[in-house]
Amino acid sequence: xxxxxxxxxxAVAILGLAAGAAIHAxxxxxxxxxxxxxxxxxxxxxxxxxxRVWLDGAPNPCLASRVDAAVALARAGRVPLLAMTGxxxxxxxxxxxxxxxALARAAGYAGPVLRxxxxxxxxxxxxxxxxxxxxxxxxxxxxxxxxxxxxRTQHLAAGTGFDRAFDVQYAAAPSGCRRWDRTLRAAxxxxxxxxxxxxxxxx
Length: 203
Fold this sequence. Notes:
Largest sheet: 5 strands, parallel
Strand content: 5-15%
Distance between the termini: 40 Å
CATH topology: Rossmann fold
Radius of gyration: 18 Å
CATH superfamily: HUPs
Number of domains: 1
CATH architecture: 3-Layer(aba) Sandwich
Order of helices and strands: HEEEHEHEHEHHEH
Number of helices: 7
């Protein structure tokens, strides 16, 4: 009996690993597709999705990468406005939207900034930023996040109605923002988040 349970546990583990690898491959392939086909139309705003302000005791380079990508859109004349969405991190007590605005200013962006300072997830990023954007008269949005985060973001945008409220395009921030160990942890978290959102029927 113990041998059967052991075999069953091994089989379940193998299936789980295979499923996780398949999800990761799908997510990465989608990110590569967005990188290969950046936004082609100008928009009213670039919406930068939140991320932890600090990572491993240092400023999170992934957050800076997202902000840099949005600033680049503004410099290219693609958007006249940046919107930062993200609440206060439980780990370090810092507000993501506030930190993102500071990063944009440090990068030389002097234009207007909208902030949504309360959301705690990608789903809430989209839900809570919607009225902020609408109040500012925004109709066309370029959503900025990392390549590995784009698949889930687009499906959550569909599930929450965000992509029906706005004309939405997506832009991928540079992917080289993590060391290999951070990349591995981020990949595992993204796979888990994809599964969790699917189980909650957020898509």
